Amino acid sequence: MSGARRAFLAALLILGGLGPARATTPIEIVLAPLYGAVASIRDFAPLRAHLQKTLGRPVESVSARDHASQLDQLRRHRYDYAVVPPHLAQQLSAEGRYHPLMTITGPDPVVLIAHHDPVETPREHLAGMRLALPDDASLASWTAQRVMPERLADARRYPNNLAAATAVSRGLADAAIVQRSAARRVTASTAAPIAATLGSNAAGMVLIHRNAPINPPPETFAKALAGFRETPKGAHYLVTHGHGALRTIDVSGLFAASASDTARHP
């Protein structure tokens, strides 16, 4: 075999090997530092999965340290995709660096943006989509957490509705979002009954609260719970605090968009 032919075949082998590697190279998406690195990566996991399915390539999530460092990284074109607050999306778009692809609904709306340079992914399939994040269980957790933000780290997950309701009745926690049947069962069997049922929805979920002033009023939570649906695994979040009172923060209409918005796959 001639030297030229061997060189030609070697080049083909190299190029052939580069193809699959390029296709499997992960795309990195940098997330706005809304609730800390761990919480951001967890809560935006549905977005990562949605992007991975739509783009047909692996996607990895990275949480920015703060908004300033995220803006600096994006201006240096460190990432092809990013989740940023609306004002940063507008600023980067005006600078001609990124363009918005998707509005993400939730307690703190954010925007998925993409770099203007060519990337071998069908980004146009994402344009104009609306993806509600995080999932319903997390949103229900956020409802109570945002009323008591100083105890955000004390949101705990229990295996089922009855376990969560029992924890409230025993004073291990101050509030829980559980099925109405579990709330009734615990209230009927304990000497220290649950103080109040603050709201309900069609799925039979209620927010129960024990031994603390009810503030804000029940109708505020009733509106916030209107979009809550039980997850397929039946997992619910328990929220605790130790300050004896709920802080007054308006959470009305929190689920107005998230209850109806779903990802539309191309």
Descriptive overview:
Helix 7 (161-169) packs parallel to helix 8. This protein has two domains: 3-133, Periplasmic binding protein-like II (D-Maltodextrin-Binding Protein, domain 2, 3-Layer(aba) Sandwich); 137-239, no CATH class. It has nine helices and eleven strands. Helix content is 36%, strand content 21%. With 266 residues, the protein is of the alpha/beta class. The strands form two sheets. A six-stranded mixed sheet has the order 2-1-3-5-4-6, sandwiched between helices. It has helices at residues 3-24, 37-43, 45-55, 67-75, 86-94, 136-145, 161-169, 180-189, 218-225, and strands at residues 27-31, 59-63, 81-84, 98-105, 110-115, 129-132, 155-158, 175-179, 196-200, 205-209, 236-239.
Strands, helices and their partners?
Elements: H1 3-24, E1 27-31, H2 37-43, H3 45-55, E2 59-63, H4 67-75, E3 81-84, H5 86-94, E4 98-105, E5 110-115, E6 129-132, H6 136-145, E7 155-158, H7 161-169, E8 175-179, H8 180-189, E9 196-200, E10 205-209, H9 218-225, E11 236-239
Parallel strand pairs: 1-2, 1-3, 4-6
Antiparallel strand pairs: 3-5, 4-5, 7-11, 8-10, 8-11, 9-10
